Structure formats: C-alpha cells, structure tokens
Amino acid sequence: MHYTLITTDQKLHEFCAQAQQSDAIAVDTEFVRTRTLYPRLGLIQIFDGVTLALIDPLDITDFGPLVALLSDEKVVKVLHSCSEDLETFWHSLGVVPKPVFDTQFAACLLNMGATLGYANLIEEMLAIKLDKGESRTDWMARPLSEEQCQYAANDVLYLFDVYPSLKQQIEALGRTQWVYQEMEQLARKKTLQVPTELAYLGIKNNWKLTGRELYLLRLLAKWRVEQARKRDLALNFVVRESNLVEIARQQPTNKNALFSIDGLTPQEARIHGDAILEMVNDAKNSPVEVFPAPIERLMEHSGFKKVSAELRAACQQTADALSIPVEVMGSKKQIQQLLKFHWLKLDEMREMGIQPDLISGWRAPLLAAQLDAILSHYQGS
Fold first, then answer.
1. Tens digit of pLDDT for each residue in 303-320?
2. Confidence grade of residue 381 (pLDDT, cut at 50, 70, 90)
3. Which of 267, 290, 313 is the last residue of a domain?
4. Of all helices (H) and strands (E), which one includes residue 186?
C-alpha cells in the first residue's frame, strides 16, 4: 500500500484532523535506544484505514494535533506489544495513547500464545509472511530508505487488518475491558518514576550489604539515577550496577583505592571519581541512625515457597477455567510483586501508590478473594 511521508506541521495537522474521524487507528513507533536512558523517537506510523502516514518527528515542530489524536478517547489506538511504544510517546511527546487495544494481549486472552510476536500474529491470521530485515536499522539516520519506510508501513497496515477480527472475538468473550484495563495499568507504570531515594532497592545483591555499606549504596544508586536522567544516559553507562556494590563494600577513600576496585573501568573512575569519593566520605561521617534497614528477601520469609505455590495454583485454576495461559493470569514475577507488596516493610510499588497486578484491574474480581484468603494464613515472617 502507498504511504504518505509527513514532514511538515501543516501535513500533520491535516492528517490528524482526518484520523480523528476514525473509530480506530493502528499505531507504531520506531526508535533508537542503545546508550540512552530514554528511547529516541525516529518515526511514527499511523493508519486510519484511508491514509497510511509515516510521521517524521525530526522535521515536526508542532506535535499538538498528534497529542490530541493520541489522547482522544473516542479513537481506539491499536498497537502490538505496546510497552516500549507507550514509554517512547511519554518521554518524547509527554502523552500516553488512550484507549489502547493491544493485539498481543488480546491474542493472549484468546489463548493464541502468551507472547505472540507481530510477524507470527500476521502470519497466523492473514497468512502473510513479513520481512523483518529492517528491525535493527538506525531510525535516527536520514534520509530514510524505501526499504525502511515499507517495513515501517507494514507494521500498521496489517495491524489495522487484524484488529476487527480480534476485537470481535474479544467482545464475544466479554473481555474488551480487560484489554483496556491492562494497558491503563501498564501506562501508569510507564509514567511513574521510582523515587531516587529508593533506587538502591532495585540493585542486584544489595542484600549482601548492611549498615554503612548499605547507606553508601543508597547514596550511589540515587546519584546514578540522577546522573542518568540528567544526561539521558543508560544507567550502566554511568556506572555499572555491580561496581556500585563493590564501591559500597570497599568504601575507597582515595583515587588509588578507587582505581584498584576490580571491574571498575578507568573511565568510570576518572569521570566520577570525585563524586564517588565525596559520597564515601559522607557515608563514613554519617551517624548510624540514618542507615537503612537491612534488605528483606522474599525467599527468607517463612512460608515463601508454600505460599508462592498456592498463589500459583490459584492463578492456574482460574486461567484454566478461562482458557488463557497462566502467565497472563499470574506470572512468577507478578506473584512475587504481590508478596513484596504485602510482606516487605519497604516496597517501591507501594511507595508509588501502585497496586499489584493480581489484585487490580480486570484480575481483581477473578483473583482477589482467593489470594487474600491464601495470604491471610501467612505473616511472611
């Protein structure tokens, strides 16, 4: 199908005005994310059933009409595996599309597979085999090649084609709101940032540190996130996570000691040496009253294995009754998310006001009572 490359504000305005008359539009993005903390938007694809638009964000200065289209609740946005797309829109344009019908999740609810890829979905539903040769191309380079543009166009052309069938099947099962609620929950997570003071809770092997070491790790993790956000640099390109733990453990007091830490690159030590040593000094001069409580680990709570198995069994039973994959109803990660929320004194999600997946949205009326009954028998201590 012919596509229209949009490179001016006027053309974008005209297309968005047209697309807002549609009941649904297929949407996709192409972005680059190699060393950056946030994805860099390279292209936006939208098909409204009439015009297939490839919107070049590098040439556009006024995104107002596009933001209005993406936030228009009368127009369903059809995406596939939309997690990174939602993040890209949020950080690039300050908008999260709504409402979102995610075809991968819809396929899950139709028991077509827990993580069905776009190419496989199109092949299964339309018997069309897509060329994924441009999937790792540089979407920030200009000019875009014809091959790049055709690849990008296909991502929304066929997405629009499979939507009516998926929508009809989902509606027949009474699960349309499940799709929208799942995407709303996902969008909320994408727009919230973990407080920098709690960044240390996500560091691997943090539990091996206590007292002053853990306090230093908290300082280092907070600083690293702030640096990453300020410079739009991936966290491990500031300082690798494992090195934060080693610095906290060894607490070097001079640059020679810092440079001798195994694994810390000379570049990391040279660029950030002064800041790191200042945090070490801060930790050494801080009273014990400010030290964080020891890190709690789920596996050390009594009953962890037993209650996890019972929660999994409840999810499995419910999933079987609905003929959907258990991973969609309640994955291992979501079960641990629930246990952290209930058992740990300090939990990032609870601090941000986010309810666990298993007891919120469409899952709540299906699972909440069963899971609450199971958890009530365990104190997790």
1. 899 999 999 999 999 999
2. very low
3. 290
4. helix 176-191
Q: What sections of the chain are H helices per DSSP?
A: 9-19, 64-70, 83-93, 103-109, 118-126, 146-172, 176-191, 211-231, 235-238, 241-250, 255-259, 266-284, 304-322, 326-329, 332-343, 348-351, 364-375
Q: Which domain holds residue 318?
A: 298-375
Residue 143 three-state SS: coil
Express each pLDDT in 137-160 by its tens digit. Answer: 899 999 999 999 999 999 999 999
- CA 381, CA 372: separation in Å to the nearest integer? 17
Q: CB-based contacts of 242: which residues, under 8 Å, 6+ apart?
A: 204, 205, 263
Give domain status of residue 132, yes or no. Answer: yes
Does residue 186 contact residue 83 with C-beta atoms inside 8 Å? yes
Whole-prediction pTM value?
0.93
Residue 34 in domain: yes
**Token pair of 109, please?**
């609810």
173 residue type, one letter: L
Q: CATH number of the domain that 338 lies in?
A: 1.10.150.80
Structure tokens at 280: 């070490």
Q: Say if 302 falls within a structural domain.
A: yes
| Catalytic positions, written as ranges | 28, 30, 85, 151, 155
In the block, which residue shows the tokens 């060393």? Answer: 35
Residue type, 301: H
Q: Which residues contact 240 (CB under 8 A, 6 or more apart)?
A: 263, 265, 268
**End of a domain among 290, 325, 345?**
290
Q: Are residues 344 and 308 in the same domain?
A: yes
Q: Does residue 380 form part of some domain? A: no
- Quote the pLDDT of residue 377: 79
Instruction: Place 104 in a pLDDT band, splitting at 50, 70 and 90.
Output: very high
pLDDT in tens, 336-347: 999 999 999 999
Domain count, the chain: 3
Q: What is the pLDDT of residues 38-85, one digit of tens each?
A: 999 999 999 999 999 999 999 999 999 999 999 999 999 999 999 999
Which of 330, 333, 340 shows the shortest CA–CA distance to 360? Answer: 330
Task: Name the helix (H) or strand (E) containing 12.
Answer: helix 9-19
